Amino acid sequence: MLPLVMTTNVLGLVPASIPSPPPEWASFSLGPLTVHVYALCILSGIVAALFITQRRLSARGAGNGVVLDIIMWAVPIGIVGARFYHVFTHLGDYFYPDANLWLVFAIWDGGNALYGSLLGGAVGAYIGCRRHNIRFWSFADAVAPALLVAQSLGRIGNYFNHELFGLPTTLPWGLEILPTDTMFPDGLPAGTLFHPLFLYEIIWNLTGFAVLLLLERRLALRWGRTLGLYLVWYGLGRSWLEAIRIDPTSDGFLGIPANIWASFAAIAVGTIIFIIQGRRHPETEKSIFRVEPALATSDTDPAAEASPRKFGTDTHILRP
Predict the structure, then answer these.
(1) Rounded to whole angstroms, how far apart are CA atoms 295 and 297?
(2) Nearest Cα to 71, choosing from 48, 37, 104, 39?
(3) Transmembrane as a keyword (predicted)?
(4) Rg from Cα positions in the chain
(5) Binding site, residues?
């Protein structure tokens, strides 16, 4: 729960603003190591997505641990994609006379673009699915709602980094940014409050998580259509948030920030996936496996044949 500064009016106590955490809360020392809260938030999101996806995929026939095998490919490539996209859309922040080019790799200071992580993560997930006999579309459907939970946890890291805020506001949940903060916009008076976009996105994402689960139950979404709806949902919310964002935003084209173009692309791609996959596969998905695992047989122990056990992506028969 975020702290709220309280003031008194004729109606009693009402929330007046959301204070930003002190800068020193953004990291702490653990022996010789410096631990960044932003990194912990990202890590917690990855762990949450792992458990949610494994549970969903196991319910469809996958063996225990297969999701961990897949994300071992998806996460590293996704992180590389996230950082590459961020740097590419913020070139002026990293490439200028006397710039410290090592900051290009300083992912712990923030600047890991979600759309870049989706592109890189999709490549990694495809590789992992191929290696572990899981249909890519089946994995994509299982992970889509989990991504919204992971993104919500990651946005808490933006709060500690004093980033992802929007236009000035007088609403009681306005976010405080100290005038001495490097993120504070020029030309605004001290005490100005801002829309807490990180909080808006958390609410939007968690609402989307519930909506996707509900639609899955009612429409029996498979073959990538849950992923398609995820892209549409996230793209719609993100395009609005980016439109009112004023902390350092991405470079743009035709006066429109790159993240808004990426959001439009996400909506378009999600819509195409939902329509095309629905036409190509009107039937309910019968198996999540690319190739059906073969059953081993035993000529010596009929009782063992009656006791199949799933392990990884293969189905084995217990033998004495």
Answers:
(1) 6
(2) 48
(3) yes
(4) 23
(5) 155
Backbone phi, psi, residue 153, to 5°: -65, -40
pLDDT tens string, the chain, 320 residues long: the values are 455 444 433 333 444 789 988 888 888 888 888 888 988 998 999 999 999 999 999 988 888 889 999 989 998 898 888 887 777 776 666 666 776 666 666 665 656 677 888 888 899 999 999 998 999 999 999 999 999 999 999 999 999 988 889 999 999 999 998 888 888 888 888 889 999 999 999 999 999 999 999 999 888 888 899 999 999 999 999 999 999 988 766 666 677 888 889 899 999 999 999 999 888 887 776 778 877 776 433 444 444 443 343 434 443 323 32
Own/partner contacts of 57-62, CB < 8 Å, gap of 24 or more, are 57/134, 57/138, 57/139, 57/142, 57/288, 60/138, 60/142, 60/285, 60/288, 61/287, 61/288, 61/289, 61/310, 62/134, 62/288, 62/310, 62/313
Domain locations along the chain: 36-166+198-289, 292-320
Which residue is it, tokens 């035709």? Answer: 254
